[in-house]
Amino acid sequence: MHGLTLPSGQDGGTNMNTLNSFWKRFGLFFAVMGPGIVTAFADNDAGGIATYAAAGAKYGYALLFTMFVSTVCLAVAQEISARTGAVTGRGLSDLIREQYGVKWTFFAMIVLLVANLGTTASEFSGIATSFEIFGVSKYISVPLAGLLVWWLVLKASYERTEKIFFVLCLTFFSYVVSGIMVNPPWGEVMKASITPSFSADAEFLMMAIGVIGTTITPWGQFYVQASVVDKGITAKDYIYTRWDVLIGSFFTGLIAFFIIVATAATLYVNDVSIETAKDAAMALAPLAGQYASMLFAFGLLGASMLAAFVLPLSTAYAVCEALGFERGVSKSYEEAPIFYGLYTALIVLGAGLVLWPDLSLYKIMLASQVVNGVLLPPILIFMVLIASNVNIMGKYANSKWYNVVAWIFTVVLIVLTVMLLISTFVPDFMQWLLEFFRVR
């Protein structure tokens, strides 16, 4: 028994201090957690879910490795934005205006407004679609959802709003359950996840580019940096925010992984083609059971609701930062009227487009993807240049090797984005490009 007695101030004290230190760090992580996880989850919006579902339905597990690459790219982009916000205490549009002038900032804000209006409409379309699967008309669901989204942000503090976001993040795990319920061949799934897959087929390449492109969005970079600033996270706390970003990116990839698995194991093997997330949910019912279909629809609802909150917020943050207006959900309407006015306008217009008779939401989504594609290259370049600037970032500036990684990732994303844009206007471009390289 004597061997169990620890002298005062020695191992017992050390172990207790280590335990206290662990719980202190754990508590600090939960205090700063939010911006990275919420932004990353919101990236898996209605358009993203439709893209992942279509990828699984058309190409099986072949694009799982592409999803892994996309997740790594997302982690790099979000890490740069979050670190810049924590170190400078300023949003991305504010820094772009200061470093590169009003003209570039004005261009970015106009493009962001147009793109985010179209994308907000697609989120309300996702809400309408999911409720229609459960038998509720869009003329009931969309106005009620829009009112709820607007009221909660207008009346709640940042902490309360963030808790709502976390609850919505949990709904994404319905896709994990759906993916497990369909009982895929896990050996084949794991092999495809770590094996690069390539096909000299124009449609396959377009789908691969689409999978990557739907994960990295301009609004996501503006929002994660703005929310880090709004939450008051500083450089000394950044180690915890980095984990927040990495964990968020991991779960974003995980959810997309299970969406692809669920549709590949059911729709692909039965040669069922789809175009939208609603098609996927409806097609799952006879193949995987009603519960799998309902879980897929429930996930679509949660994803669309989260993005309907975050997208208008990211736009209001970015525009108000650029123009020097007060912003933040922790402020009252009287303190930040432009911020809340812009947020309200985006919700009203986005929901209104969904309710407009005979309006093609598919064309709106396509147009918003094109506009996002125009904005993404300069935003990525500005992000890396700012994060590399020692005068701005001090000791937190990108290291030499991290800079190499960041520029490689930026150049690859720009090339893919340009290819996607050209292919949108010239549908035979990818086929022509493949034929060109075959001749060579």
Detailed description of the structure:
This protein has helices spanning 11-32, 35-43, 46-59, 64-88, 92-100, 102-133, 138-155, 158-170, 173-181, 186-194, 202-215, 218-230, 238-268, 277-288, 290-323, 337-355, 361-388, 390-393, 400-425, 429-439. With 440 residues, the chain is mainly alpha-helical. The protein is globular, with a radius of gyration of 23 Å.
Which key terms come to mind for this protein?
globular, mainly alpha, 440 residues, 80% helix
CA-based gyration radius = 23 Å
What overall geometry do the principal axes of the alpha carbons give? globular
Query: Structural class of the helices, strands and pairings?
Result: mainly alpha
Strand content: under 5%
- Unreliable stretches (pLDDT < 50, length at least 5) are 1-10
Averaging pLDDT over every residue, what do you get?
Answer: 81
Order of helices and strands: HHHHHHHHHHHHHHHHHHHH
SS field, number of helical segments: 20
**Residue share in helix:** over 70%
